[in-house]
Every structure is written in structure tokens, then in C-alpha cells.
Design goal:
Elements lengths: L1 E3 L11 E3 L11 H6 L5 H8 L6 E5 L5 H8 L3 E6 L2 H4 L6 E4 L11 E6 L3 H4 L2 H14 E10 L13 E5 L2 E12 L2 E10 L2 E10 L3 H10 L2 E6 L6 E6 L5
Parallel strand pairs: 1-5, 3-4, 3-6, 4-5, 6-7
Antiparallel strand pairs: 2-11, 7-13, 8-9, 9-10, 10-11, 12-13
């Protein structure tokens, strides 16, 4: 089942994409993301939620790379994305076509998922709205699971670099500093002889900055879930001390 909510209708500042098929406002190639396999995110999520938790609100779900993996684990997922073409790739979940900022479904969930480094790629004002959306939709005994860029991820000294995820080659091709803590990053992808590129703006956020942003949204950091500290569990400030 699909719903449609408020759409901004504008291209994300600093974002662009190129390659075969539909390119979304933030530069994502639908055909490429529809072919990208999960990278273990579903197991991080399953291990982070409280026992018995089943409902997940996935913000920026894209083509369902993580959605489908969560469904296979028995979760009930509501997948939100502003791209109709991305949502058309999702099977088995309720979908909502909407921007994340300002979303208000009038429902609350056991877990709210803000992955794909959205907390880093959004402008500060938009980031605040994203986190407020997370708080608005999480149960008081639930959690918000956030994926953030690791330290030095966009350091030009570490670029170029690449890795493979199955048949997909993923390359961080360029990183251009735009100002203190702000970098323009160009990604390149290759799959079965077809190629795509995507450029986005990355805002560096150390742990103190993340905690400050969470607090402004009525959340607090609860635990880092991975050794590289790129996955963080946050909880409502009203939940415990």
C-alpha cells in the first residue's frame, strides 16, 4: 500500500547524479540502488531494538535494499522515500512517498531508521528537521537508529579508494573541501559494465556535534553499535536518565 505526503519538489543542494535510468533529486540512480545488496545493516538493526519490537519506520528507504532484508527477519516496515521510482522497487512493505522533513504520519514505531549517512549529507537546518521527524515517530520505549560517517571518511588524503559489494564496484572518486567541515564528495559505481556517478555534500559531525543535534530534537545517544562507531542508537530523552 502506498501513500503520498508533502513533497518539496526541489533538487538537494550540492547533489547531482548521472548514468542510465532515473536519477532522484539527491543524485541517486534507481537502477543501481535496486541492484545493491544489503551490507549487514539488518543484523545491526535487529540486535539494537528491544525484545519483541517489530514495527520499523525506515526514512529514506530508497529501492528497499534494507527494507527487504528487514522483512525477511519478520519486521513490519513502513518505507518512506520521495522518489516514486525508488518506492516502485519495494515489495511487501507499506510505502509512503514523502520527504522526511516535516513528515507526520500520526503513528509511532518501535524503531525509526535514519541510515545512508543522511545525518551527514543534510544541511544543518534540514538535519534538525530529520531528527525531529525521528523523535515524532518513535515510541517512548523505542529507539532511533542512525548511520553516520566515520572519522576521516571524506578526508581527501583517503581518496580515491574503492571496494566491492558482490558484483558492484563502489569508488570514492573525489573529495573537495568546500569550507570548514564541509566536503563535496563524488562517488562512482559500476555494475555489469554500466556506470553511475553521484555527488553529494558531506558535513563532518564529531560525536559531540551528534549529541548536540540529538538533544535539540529531544533525543539522546544511548550506545554505539559498531566498532567504527558509525551506527548509533538514540532514545527519547523521556526514556530514563
Amino acid at each position: 500500500m502506498s501513500e503520498q505526503r508533502r513533497l518539496s519538489g526541489h533538487r538537494r543542494a550540492g547533489s547531482a547524479g548521472a548514468g542510465p535510468g532515473t536519477i532522484t533529486p539527491d543524485g541517486c540512480a534507481v537502477e543501481m540502488y535496486a541492484r545493491m545488496a544489503p551490507d549487514g545493516e539488518q543484523h545491526i538493526i535487529a540486535g539494537a531494538v528491544r525484545e519483541g519490537a517489530r514495527s520499523v519506520l525506515e526514512l529514506g528507504a530508497g529501492a528497499g535494499r534494507v527494507t527487504h532484508a528487514l522483512l525477511e527477519l519478520g519486521f513490519e516496515v513502513v518505507a518512506v522515500d520521495e522518489s516514486a521510482e525508488m518506492l516502485a522497487e519495494i515489495r511487501g512493505a507499506r510505502t509512503v512517498r514523502s520527504t522526511i522533513e516535516g513528515l507526520d504520519l500520526g503513528e509511532r514505531f518501535d524503531a525509526v531508521l535514519l541510515a545512508s549517512y543522511l545525518v551527514n549529507t543534510a544541511e544543518p537546518e534540514v538535519r534538525a528537521e530529520l531528527l525531529r521527524t525521528c523523535r515524532r515517530h518513535v515510541r517512548d520505549d523505542g529507539c532511533v537508529l542512525i548511520q553516520r560517517e566515520g572519522a576521516g571518511w571524506n578526508d581527501p588524503a583517503n581518496v580515491p579508494r574503492e571496494h566491492r559489494r558482490g558484483p558492484l564496484r563502489i569508488k570514492v572518486a573525489a573529495a573537495e573541501p568546500l569550507g570548514p567541515g564541509v566536503t563535496s564528495v563524488r562517488m562512482e559505481y559500476e555494475f555489469e559494465g554500466r556506470g553511475w556517478s553521484q555527488t553529494h555534500t558531506s558535513h563532518e559531525l564529531d560525536e559531540a556535534a551528534v549529541e548536540e543535534a540529538l538533544a535539540e530534537a529531544g533525543l539522546r545517544g544511548d550506545a554505539y553499535l559498531t566498532d567504527d562507531r558509525t551506527w548509533l542508537r538514540a532514545v527519547p530523552q523521556c526514556a530514563g536518565s
